[in-house]
Specification:
The complex is a heterodimer. Chain A contains 7 helices and 16 strands. By secondary structure, chain A is an alpha+beta fold. Classes of the chains: A alpha+beta, B alpha+beta.
Chain lengths: ~425, ~180
């Protein structure tokens, strides 16, 4: 049996054999493992040889072992330093603090309308979105979202008929030991399910649901300031003071909420809007949310037919095991002076619809496995513009080849409420591909 | 609304003391004291070489795998401090595995501005006694948090890694 001195000598010899290569080439972990196994084998062989050495040779061996010991310790320190250097890869500070992300979606719609002149067979790159964020320090960060819709915009005569929009650009501050945060700039209004979270892999259906599109109206962003406070486990309060709507009060789109979005572009700010939201997420897989928004003058024009506007919204978003369920209800109460509206040539029926605009949807879903999910949705919308009064059934599936990539297909059937809009009724299918990163 | 606007804006912007976005909920020392009430053992080092590296890449879904990770072991009990990126920032998680089952999972440091719910017991208790099945999958479904999918996914990944690494260090008799 070899003495401890002999074992140390053998270990030192072994380390010397591999040290030259180790420092010169920074071997992989697998290579190091292999070399360690070789070293063990060499130790076994040398141990057998040394155990037969005469006693006179051993003091000399002890000196060598001590020298090798010191070399081993030095090499271990070098390996430790190399490993630390590999782990703490240095990047330029601003690169480490700046993040790029985005999402996008291409749609194909194939819809047969009751009036064949309204048939739709179309490809559209509906959204190409880039996120850019930067962390200034532990307290303050910047976040932005730039969107190109329908492939872009160009001058007259071009087929490009989209939009380039700044959808978010705000600075956020952390407060109260991270129990709260405040932001100022252009941000998404805290309301609904999709308004803040709408990357393609996060929802079913090629097109976003029409209730949030028409009534809320998502995606809705505004310039102003916001505050978020965590009240307790899973309970959050958001409040925001921001530019309000500038809702039209004449023409075919009179009192149409979606047309009132100013998008923080020379936005009139004589009458701001105040939005409050409570959100509860203390049960895993469950989100309960409710919002109220108040704007004293929803048109921001004095002495016209529209005064106060109030939006109420409530939703449930469940994902428990394989089952999912989304349901949302939203309603606008508009204070409309009928005489002034009639004097502005707005039809009576449009005025009646505009006073109380609402919508709701129910969307059960089932996740067959991590890659496949199926859903169905029913929506009902009653809004100011006649063509925004309809119900719609749809069903389809999502396929996620990767958690951040989705392929979608759905079938939709829409029925309008008003006889005059019967020609707009349609059924058909949609295909979509989307991603986020 | 005009009278309300300016002072509310100022309160929203500047009200309250500012503090770090990187919120430390539990220090390493405090976590180890919870993991080993008698006395934490000295740390050991697990080098993440193949085939363990390949398994780690499969769980994480990317190849940004550390060279090594520290762990603490007392017989069949191991403690790990692992990090994985949620949406943009890493989440630092402390995990304790006993006899191949997750006994504790605690968010030590959270750096994201959303998804903070994952650090609460109402979310993490879903992992209690979780173990691996089918080689490296968790033996149960973990319900997510709406709007925090990426943070939830990060928590699932580190749970699987801790169980995988525990199996590795306790199977081959590593000290």
């Amino acid at each position: 049996m070899a003495s401890s001195t002999q074992w140390r000598l053998l270990a030192a010899v072994g380390f010397c054999l591999i040290s030259g290569n180790a420092l010169a080439e920074s071997p992989s972990n697998a290579e190091l493992q292999r070399q360690i196994e070789e070293l063990k084998q060499q130790i076994r062989v040398l141990s057998e040889k040394l155990s037969g050495q005469p006693p006179a040779a051993q003091p000399e061996l002890s000196k060598q072992v001590e020298t090798q010991d010191q070399q081993i310790k030095a090499q271990q320190q070098q390996i430790e330093a190399l490993a630390k250097q590999a782990e703490e890869t240095k990047k330029a500070d601003w690169i480490a603090r700046t993040k790029l992300g985005g999402y996008g979606e291409l749609h194909y719609n194939n819809l047969d309308a009751e009036d064949s002149a309204r048939d739709l067979e179309e490809f559209d790159f509906h959204r190409f979105v880039l996120f850019l964020s930067h962390t200034f320090n532990d307290d303050i960060r910047f976040f932005s979202e730039l969107e190109i819709e329908h492939s872009g915009v160009e001058a007259d005569g071009s087929p490009l008929n989209g939009e380039v929009e700044l959808e978010q650009a705000y600075v956020e501050f952390d407060l109260l030991n991270d129990k709260a945060s405040a932001k100022a700039g252009l941000f998404l209004i805290p309301i609904g399910i999709l308004n803040e979270t709408h990357e393609p892999p996060t929802f079913y259906g090629v097109e976003r649901n029409d209730v949030e599109n028409v009534i809320i109206p998502a995606t809705w962003w505004a310039g102003g300031a916001g505050y978020t406070h965590r009240l307790g486990e899973g309970l959050q309060w958001d409040v925001a003071l921001h530019e309000g709507l500038r809702t039209p009060v004449t023409g075919g789109s009179a009192f149409r909420i979606r047309d009132g979005r100013q998008k923080t572009s020379f936005a009139r700010a004589e009458d701001l809007a105040l939005t409050n939201r409570i959100k509860y997420t203390a049960i895993p897989g469950v989100e309960l949310g409710a919002s109220v928004q108040l704007q004293k003058d929803a048109s921001q024009i004095r002495n016209d037919s529209l005064e106060q506007g109030v939006l109420y919204e409530a939703h449930v978003d469940l994902k428990r095991g394989a089952f999912g369920l989304r349901t949302l209800y939203a309603k606008w109460d508009l204070d409309i002076d009928e005489d002034l509206a009639l004097a502005a040539l707005v039809p009576q029926d449009q005025i009646d619809r505009a006073k109380s605009q609402k919508g709701w949807y129910l969307e059960p879903s089932y996740r067959l496995n991590p890659e496949w999910g199926v859903y169905a949705r029913y929506e009902d919308i009653e809004a100011a513009r006649s063509s925004d009064n309809f119900n719609q059934w749809e069903a389809g599936f999502n396929y996620w080849p990767h958690p951040s990539v989705v392929l979608k297909m759905d079938y939709r059937s829409r029925t309008h409420e008003l006889d005059a809009d019967e020609g707009r009724d349609f059924d058909g299918f949609d295909l979509g591909v989307g991603y986020q990163f | 609304m005009r009278l309300l606007s300016l002072p509310v804006c100022l309160v929203l912007l500047f009200g309250g003391p500012q503090a770090s976005a990187e919120e430390v909920f539990l220090t390493t020392e405090a976590f180890l004291a919870q993991a080993f009430p008698d006395s934490p053992p000295p740390p050991a080092m697990l080098w993440i070489a193949d085939p363990l590296r390949e398994e780690t890449i499969r769980i994480l879904g990317h190849s940004s795998v550390p060279l090594r990770t520290r762990y603490w072991r007392q017989e069949q009990r191991t403690a790990w401090i692992l990090e994985e990126i949620g949406k943009e920032e890493p989440i630092t998680v402390g995990l304790v595995v006993q006899d191949g089952k997750l006994e504790m999972i605690k968010v030590l440091v959270y750096r994201e501005s959303r998804g903070w719910e994952v650090r609460h017991d109402f979310f993490t208790r879903q992992f209690w006694q979780a173990q691996l099945q089918n080689k490296d999958e968790l033996d149960r479904n973990i319900d997510g948090i709406a709007g925090a999918t990426l943070s939830v996914n990060a928590m699932r990944k580190v749970a699987r890694l801790a169980l995988l690494y525990h199996r590795h260090v306790t199977a081959d008799g590593a000290p």
